[in-house]
């Protein structure tokens, strides 16, 4: 039997936790595609379903989780379509049951868009501009910042300290990541972007579209960082494709929030940091039984060979011209 804390999160505990809020669950639950935390759709008698999110033990402090919730509620109060946690009558949004911290959210249906249309990019840009306008109004006190140290150097050190990386790749990995991180640190220092509160993980799967508008979900990774962090994961394709896409996103964004075009020079550095952080995230979570099951290709020489190749490509990408955008 697994000794991982989530092994004790049984269906009975999940349903009992939901009912402590005052709901009557039908007994039907469905595990959603979430690995960092455990998230379930729970059917409720004579009411709409709810999403129950059970936080990974020891990842965030209570204060950091409440700050996530507070940011979501602040955005919702500004009529920005974010899925915010449900609050008890006393205003509390973070609960504990059987040793697990959890929160409940209204169930948000929707589709994931590939952002293939100009209209969707402009609309999304408007919402992100509004989000960032709220985000700059105050600072996080308990949430982390996106830095070269936290996403890059800490990730490389963790990988090297464990036995995941094959011995024949260690020297290459060390030299390559040192080179990348020195260059990325220089780029961050040169741009000196203004930082603000962000969604932090604004990729297409965290945007659910209904009736031509997106709902932003999962602020679990909200943090402080440059505005472009919430924009670059929306882009794909060639340099020309991405330049067209970012122009349309910023057309909507700039209606509510100014954007410094110099931040576009951080796009490839941020992509590199995400690649490194993702590899270390898998390594950090490998003791969770859900990870070997769902990521069976990790912890193999082929994965690390491909990871180094991706990082080499990023080293070349850092020499490419940055995307350009000129506000009207």
Describe this structure in words.
By secondary structure, this protein is an alpha+beta fold. The chain has two domains: 5-108, Phosphorylase Kinase, domain 1, CATH 3.30.200.20; 118-317, Transferase(Phosphotransferase) domain 1 (Transferase(Phosphotransferase), domain 1, Orthogonal Bundle). Helix content is 42%, strand content 14%. The chain has a five-stranded antiparallel beta sheet, with helices on one face. Strands 6-8-9 form a three-stranded antiparallel beta sheet, with helices on one face. Strands 7-10 form a two-stranded antiparallel sheet. A hairpin with a 5-residue loop joins strand 2 and strand 3 (50-54). The model has no long low-confidence stretch (mean pLDDT 96).
Helices and strands: which structural class? alpha+beta
Number of E strands: 10
Superfamily at the CATH H level of the largest domain?
Transferase(Phosphotransferase) domain 1
Spans of at least 5 consecutive residues whose pLDDT stays below 50 are none
Shape: globular
The CATH architecture of the largest domain can be given as Orthogonal Bundle
SSE sequence, one letter per element:
HEEEHEEEHHHEEEEHHHH
For the record, the CATH class of the largest domain is: Mainly Alpha
Q: What separation lies between the terminal Cα atoms? A: 61 Å
Helix content bin: 40-55%
Q: How large is the share of residues in beta strands?
A: 5-15%
CATH topology of the largest domain: Transferase(Phosphotransferase), domain 1
Average pLDDT confidence is 96
Neighbour order of strands in the largest sheet: 1-2-3-5-4
Domains counted in the coordinates: how many? 2
